[in-house]
UniProtKB/TrEMBL annotation:
PANTHER family per record: OUTER MEMBRANE PROTEIN ALPHA, OUTER MEMBRANE PROTEIN ALPHA-RELATED
InterPro entries per record: Cell_Envelope_Struct_Comp, SLH_dom
Taxonomic lineage of the native organism: Bacteria, Thermotogati, Deinococcota, Deinococci, Thermales
Source organism of this protein record: Meiothermus taiwanensis WR-220
Protein's name according to its UniProt entry: SLH domain-containing protein
Domain SLH residues, every copy: 18-80, 81-144, 145-207
Protein origin, superkingdom: Bacteria
Length: 526
């Protein structure tokens, strides 16, 4: 039984599944679509008995023969070079592939005139070879790339790694690391070649496909925002921990815990997830009996609690030291060094610095908060209520889809902007917020059965702050007569009780539901 239940899903395009996979590749394996494609094209071959052996590491001989097949299937003219390596005999089975690779400029020997074909291929080496291949095939590289956290500046493979990760040919791990010295498995090679095939298919990129598995496919719905694709969503069912299998919080903690928290069950006490940087870390809200706390989790296969701060406040949602207190009328900022707290509240409220619009003093119900998130510069804080404010009263607002998305300027403190945000349907609620990039705000909505995560454009909306709509009497929650923020669906998954949102990488996010749940995006966020 793993210490924490982590679930992932892949949004897939609707396709027809025709060719059978190798017998040892599960249909729901992350590399299954890639294996099917490269085996069908003959780029990678199976073993006797119909197996693929995807975990087997590749060597430089196998690299040569594999890429020779890829080149033979490409529009590039045949270019071979006469090569003489001390350690490659004239009748060696890999020599034709080596000649093609050298002629194409993809590989070269070592200074001692050896090829060292039996040495294991590393991810750094593969990045350099595939980078040259992509250039020869005319692939257009993105202008910007996210730098892996473990890529040294000036590394001999630096430029190639940045381009190959930006193109998702060699994706980063969920922790933002590249792990370039690790060997390349047949699964990883299949995924990389499949992605190259996507990028080079003229006018019709290869689309991700995956075979339907019994009990795991949900019917597609029409996407609400322009430009979204109709998609199927597959997700493993989320089950509560079995009796006696819960993980004590102390078992994953790297810091000392108060005695009353030591035996708290991780799955039961973890109630909300907020964003943090660097990627792979997230602020979490904990509740145990009548006690509250916030803590910093490092989200690995075995999560690690790196910091823990018990509080005397009833925290609803928190992110990077900022907490929205239950009741929705106070924000708290906890200085993590001194553990001194400052409070912010609606304009005109006593005992708190001004920050929130006045309507929040009257309109937020306890427990209906949505999320808080800092932008990349740490100069602005976004927050959103979970459901429409109860203005003029809750019964009238129950059928509304209008929320208030508020941006606070932290230097100096004060209300920066307020926007109208429209939910997908009445009764839905916001359960999480993340702000990983200056122009990329992510909102996690839930309708009781399905989670939907939207990317929000803050540049195309009417600012409500200090207008006639910014008062209880205006009835904004009942009459959405202002231009809302533009949003686009980026992820959909069947979850029952999610809470929070953390960005782990451009292709992976996380939320809380009886423990941690990892969600994988079909397309990278940036």
């Amino acid at each position: 039984m793993p210490l924490m239940r982590i679930v992932s899903f892949v949004t897939v395009f609707v396709t027809v599944w025709s060719l059978a996979l190798p017998v040892d590749v599960p249909g729901d394996h992350w590399a299954a679509p890639a294996v099917e494609e490269v085996v069908k094209r003959g780029w990678l071959q199976g073993y006797p008995g119909g197996t693929f052996r995807g975990e087997v590491a590749l060597d430089r001989y196998q690299l040569a023969t594999t890429l020779a097949r890829v080149l033979a299937d490409s529009p590039l003219p045949i270019r071979e070079a006469e090569v003489r390596f001390k350690d490659v005999k004239p009748n060696h089975w890999a020599l034709p592939g080596i000649r093609r690779m050298v002629g194409e400029g993809l590989v070269q020997g070592f200074p001692d005139q050896t090829y060292r074909g039996a040495s294991v291929l590393t991810r750094y080496q593969l990045a350099v070879v595939l980078d040259k291949l992509a250039q020869n095939l005319g692939v257009v590289f993105p202008a910007k790339a996210m730098r892996p956290g473990d890529l040294p500046s000036g590394h001999w493979a630096e430029a190639a790694v940045l381009r190959m990760t930006a193109l998702e040919v060699l994706p980063l791990g969920s922790d933002g690391l590249f792990r370039g010295s690790e060997p390349v498995s047949r699964y990883q090679m299949a995924r990389a070649l499949w992605r190259i095939g996507q990028l080079t298919s003229a006018g019709n990129p290869v689309q991700i496909s995956s075979p339907p598995a019994a009990g795991t496919v949900q019917q597609a719905r029409s996407a609400p925002a322009a430009g979204n694709v109709e998609a199927l969503t597959r997700v493993q069912a989320v089950q509560p921990p079995e009796a006696g299998q819960s993980t004590p919080l102390a078992a994953v903690s790297g810091v000392a815990l108060p005695a009353e928290w030591a035996e708290a069950a991780l799955e039961a006490s973890l109630v909300h997830l907020g964003q943090a940087r660097p990627f792979g870390r997230a602020w979490a809200t904990f509740k145990h009996h009548n006690r509250q706390a916030i803590g910093l989790l490092r989200l690995e296969e075995k999560p690690v609690l790196e910091a823990f701060y018990p509080l005397n406040e009833a925290v609803s949602v928190a992110s990077e030291g900022w907490a929205w207190l239950e009741g929705g009328q106070k924000l708290m900022h906890l200085d993590l060094k001194s553990q001194a707290a400052r409070y912010f509240g609606p304009i005109g409220q006593r005992e708190a610095r001004e920050a929130l619009p006045p309507v929040f003093a009257a309109g937020v119900e306890q427990g209906l908060l949505g999320g808080v998130a800092l932008d990349e510069s740490r100069n602005y804080l976004a927050l959103i209520n979970g459901r429409p404010l109860c203005l003029p009263d809750c019964s009238k607002a129950a059928g509304s889809v209008v929320l208030r998305l508020v941006l606070l300027g932290l230097n100096p403190d004060g209300l920066f902007a307020e926007y109208a945000y429209l939910l997908e349907a009445p009764g839905s609620r916001v359960v999480g917020l993340a702000w990983p990039k200056p122009r990329l705000l992510l909102v996690h909505e839930h309708d009781g059965k399905t989670s939907r995560i939207f990317a929000v454009d803050l540049n195309e909306a009417d600012d409500l702050a200090f207008t006639e709509w910014d008062s209880p009497e205006a009835g904004l929650e009942l009459r959405p007569q202002v231009k809302p923020v533009v949003k686009k669906l980026v992820l959909e998954a069947p979850l029952e009780h999610p809470s929070g949102l953390a960005i782990l990488s451009p292709t992976e996010v996380a939320t809380v539901q009886k423990g941690l749940v990892r969600l994988r995006l079909e397309k990278p966020l940036w």
